[in-house]
Every structure is written in C-alpha cells, then in structure tokens.
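Hi L.,

You mentioned the student needs an example of a multi-chain input paired with its predicted structure. This one should do, with 729 residues in total across all chains.
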Amino acid sequence: MSISMALFSPPISSPLQNSNLIPKISLSLLSTKRLSLVSLTRASSDNGTSTPASATTVEAPTPKPVSVEEVLAESPSASENGAVGGEEIDMTTTMMTEIKFQDAKWVNGTWDLKQFEKEGKTDWDSVIVAEAKRRKWLEDNPETTSNDEPVLFDTSIIPWWAWMKRYHLPEAELLNGRAAMVGFFMAYFVDSLTGVGLVDQMGNFFCKTLLFVAVAGVLFIRKNEDLDKLKGLIEETTLYDKQWQAAWKEPESSSSSTVSSKK
Amino acid sequence: MATFALKSFTGLRQSPTDQITFVSNVPSSLSRSQRRTSLKVTASRASPKLANRSLRVAVIGGGPAGGAAAETLAQGGIETILIERKMDNCKPCGGAIPLCMVGEFNLPLDIIDRRVTKMKMISPSNIAVDIGRTLKEHEYIGMVRREVLDQYLRERAEKSGATVINGLFLKMDLPENWDSPYVLHYTEYDGKTGATGQKKTMEVDAVIGADGANSRVAKSIGAGDYDYAIAFQERIRIPDDKMTYYEDLAEMYVGDDVSPDFYGWVFPKCDHVAVGTGTVTHKGDIKKFQLATRNRAKDKILGGKIIRVEAHPIPEHPRPRRLSKRVALVGDAAGYVTKCSGEGIYFAAKSGRMCAEAIVEGSQNGKKMIDESDLRKYLEKWDKTYLPTYRVLDVLQKVFYRSNPAREAFVEMCGDEYVQKMTFDSYLYKRVAPGSPLEDLKLAVNTIGSVFRANALRREIEKLNV
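Structure written out for the whole complex:
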C-alpha cells in the first residue's frame, strides 16, 4: 500500500497536481479498488518533494510507457535554460523525457470508438468527456506536436444529437423555465393592474414589446456580469472602425475644420 | 529655396519669372471634397508652380515602404531623398510576402528564399490541420530575408534617381507658413567617422514618414499613439533532416499557452527556421510564450541551435492622425498592419507607393507645390481599397482568437476546403473575394457548429475542474 502511495507521488510534484492525477488514474487504474488509494494520495498531494525515481520503477502492471519517469524535476529547470536567449542552446539534452497524454482508449491520435461501446452502441457522452479530459490535460501540460503521432481526432464525428442532448437541451430547459416564470408573473401582474386578459395582452403592441425584451433578456443576460460583458462587446465591435476613422476627424489645431465622416 | 511674391490668397500667383498659370485642378478637388462632405479642402487657393526646381520630398526610413515610395517619387520626376539609418539592417520579421507583391513590384524571383505552399495550423489540443491543398501550381507565399528585400528596393529607388543617404533622422522643424519648407535635422553617417556622424539639416517641401513602428516623424507631427504587439522571435538552425520537413511548410500554433491574443509560428527561412510568438495584452510574459511555442514544436526542432534572438513592436491599428499638412505616414509608421495575421510588408510597400503616386499627381510630376489635400487623396484611396480587408481580419481576430474553444473551432474551420480557398485568394491577391452564397451558408452553419462544440467541450472541462 505504501509503495503504491509512493508510486503516485511523482505526479504530485509537478506544478498542477490534481489535473495530473486524473489521466494517470484513467490509465493505471484498471480496477475500481484503486480509487480509494487515489483519494488518499490526493489528500497528501501537498508534499511535493517525494522520492521520484525509485518509486516509479516499482510500477509493474501499468500500461504506461517507461518515458514517464523523473522528468518532473527536470522540466522546470530545463525551461530556465531555454530562457537564456542569445546563446547557443543545444536542445537535445533537455526535455528528452516528458509526460505525454496517455490513455488506453486514445489510439493512434484519435479515440478508438470501439472501446466506448455500451450495449452495442457507442456511448457518445463518454467520448465527449474523454476528449474534454484530454484537452484539459493539454491545457495544463502543453505538449509538443509530433509528426510521428499526429492528433487526428475531429469532434465532428460525434453526431449532432449527442451534443444537443448533452448541452443544448438542459440549457434550453433552464432558459425556457425562466422565461415561463417571468412570463406568467408579468401576465398576472399586467392583468391585475389593467384588467387586460392574456389573449388581449398578446394583441397589444406594448405588451408584445415587453415580451420581446423579456425573451431577449433571458437569453442574453444569465448572470449579473453579462450586462457589462455585453456593453464591452458592443464597444469592441466598433473600436477598430473608430481607430481607422480617427484620421478623418480633424482636431482644431489644423487649418481646416471638418466634419468627421463615417464611411 | 525660392520664395513667391504673394499678392492674394485666392488664386492667381505671381512668381518672379514665370507666367501665371491658374491651376485647373483646384476647383475640381474643391467640389469633390464638398460632395464628400467629409473634410474641407485646405487649399482653396491655388498651389503655385515651383520656379526653377522640382518638388523636393524626403522619405525617412528605407524599408519596404520607404523604398517603394522613393522609387515612385523618383520615377515621377520629383527630387527624392531617402534617409535610412542602417543600410544592412536585419529586421526581425516573419518575412512572408503575398504572391501579388512579386507581380506588382516586379520583384526578381531570386529575392525569394523559399516558396511556402503548405501550412499547418495547430490547435491548443494539438489537432493539426493541413492548409494548402487548394493552391494552384504557381501560387505560393514567398519567404524573403528583409535585408535582401529592403536593399533591393532601395537600390531600385537609387537607380530611378533618388538620393540615398545613410543617416538618422532626429527631428523636424514644422513650417510657419503654408509654403515654407520643412527643415529636417539628421545625423549623417559616412562610414569613416565611425559611430558618431555629422549633424546636418535639410530643407524639403514634403516628408513621407516610413520609419517604422517607433516613427520619429509621427512624433514630430503629433500623430498620436497606437496599441502595439510585441513580436518575439528566435532564429534556430536545425539539423538538415528536420529542415526538410520545413522545406515549403510553415506552421502556426494557437493556444493560451502560446499567446493569449495572437499565434506562435515556425517559419522557414533561407537555412534556418524562425520560431516566434507575439502578444498585445501580456507583453511581460512574452518569454513564457516563447518557451511554450518552442515546446509545442519541440519534436520538430530538436537538436537546433538558437542563432539569434530578436523582438520588435507591431502596430495593432492605425495612428489617430496619419498625415499633417505636407507630411504623410506610410507602412508601420502609420500602423498598417493587419490583425489576425500580422501582415505588414505588402501594405507598407503599397502604401509607400500610393502616397508617392498621390504626391506625383498632386504636384504634376514635381512642377507644383503640394498641400494636404493631395496627401488626403492617398488616404482616401488607401482606406477605400483596403479597409474591407482590415475589417474582415479584425472580425476574425475578435471571434477566433478569444479563447481556446474559439481557437479550436478556428482550426477546425481551416480544414474546410472552401475556407482555404477563400483565405488564400484573399491573402495572395489582396482582394476580399465574394464566394458563392450557398457555400457561405454552409460555412456559417459549420462555423456555428464548430464554435458550439468547442464551447461545449470547454464547459465539460470546467465541470471537471470542480
């Protein structure tokens, strides 16, 4: 047990700790009983200085390649070397070994869909989650591209309805619910104030405008910050144009006075 | 410098020896600008004919913009002086020129070190897309060495009759009257006196500021500041077998690790590759971004030796004022670098030429004094021709360089043949070509799909973070 704990500690010494654990878990944890181990090691994740090399060699049954060893101490220092510009830096010695993204289901630069099958059909949800994990891993540990192992996965092979079901529908439900609640109360409120019933409200232009505003508000403003974001967006879209037109706006110092033009 | 005996400001001029010629183009330019309602012409008076001499124009800066401007001016019969501070300046630059530049500027083919016909766009999650399948046989992106190109253009200007001076422009005295000369203060290097040159002054009628991103001419006329990006580049000599991969291929890396608002690149040069990146908003982290770029290309540049490190500013948008009286800015000094791709060489040369053409036309081949309205014609023409291009690239940058999901979608979109064709058409020939509406619609749908998928994955990633 303690050996296995030490086994997991080298990944911990890298800067971004939790994220490192996840893919390692996915590849080396072939059975669920190791999950308890992971929770233990996570708790102890702050002792970064652990015995790196010796522990990893104990790892027998994992499908991980041997390249994942005692690299972590090296890679930050290697980057310092690289930062000294202007010198002749031979890049062969540094960064020889590095953690790369590995997963049993990631075969030849793409996800092997056969491994994602559930009851005879591909479980697209798990493909999406796996790809998200891969991207997260890469965001935290950027990797070199290689001509020998190109990444060929294309997200468009996942059918549109899988995306819809997973992302669009829950959000649509949420927004529709909000719109329905707002709409119901507004209809009641207006009715109690003016006595105009729902059907007659729909015929009124002002009420139709209110309805439009309510729908747009529910769609575009979901958090308080969205208001500022929208304002920033509008300003952003016109900024470049303004910068170009600045040459046509004449300050008073010049001899002519002009009317600034908008093309 | 001849002075004119002025009788009145409204038309007829009396010059000492010549017959008065009422300048005929003034009324037409007046009515044209009145119709435009955009600006009042400063010359409601006639521009006088110059007695006994041609118009004198100084071009400050001898890069592509300066070289092209000086050549056009000299060919137009104008007395041209080109001032360049470093004749063998090895500019840190991507060095990519579009195909149309070779034709438009009659560049000899041996200036081009390499012809890039393939590009690879690499997304944050290392999905690589090959671009260039739609290129025809004769189409390519030319990679040049800036010192070679700049020298060639300067030599051509000299052959056309321009005087090339090796000197550093210091400052400029603005004229008091509308027809007084500009007095330029500069230090002339003659190669023998070593580092310190001789201080000299020169009187000219008009100035074209082609002195780059840190333009002193721009400062002299109070042109205002602009936002700029820092581009950082390392030239790396890699082993020959790795170099064959980059024979005619350039790479673009996008991702938050490589740059928050630009891209990292590996461009092949004559016998080495240039690996670099750039940013506007996080200039302090540029070294970190450079490391990340090198890391992403690591496998392909392993064993390489860094032979040079360079950095330079790239303007992000034009300066608030691009001309003032008889001084006009062109090229990087004016801020004519596109967004999204950061392309500047072609636009520098073209703007230099356009400005020079406006001066030649306005002065009637150097016979007349020019004024601001003539230079404004150059601005009008420039904005009319290229503003759509700039706008489109700005939109692309705003939409697709925002965040990692947007970049993933961008790379996915680049895999589409229609996109590649449109992109190359507009890049190589500098025209925003209208595509077919059906394909445009398909493209719009695909774009929305890609962006949606990428954002959905990002939400999934955020869920994992929790």
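You could point out the following to them. Residues 118 and 124 of chain A are 10 Å apart (CA to CA). The radius of gyration of chain A is 29 Å.

Best wishes,
N.
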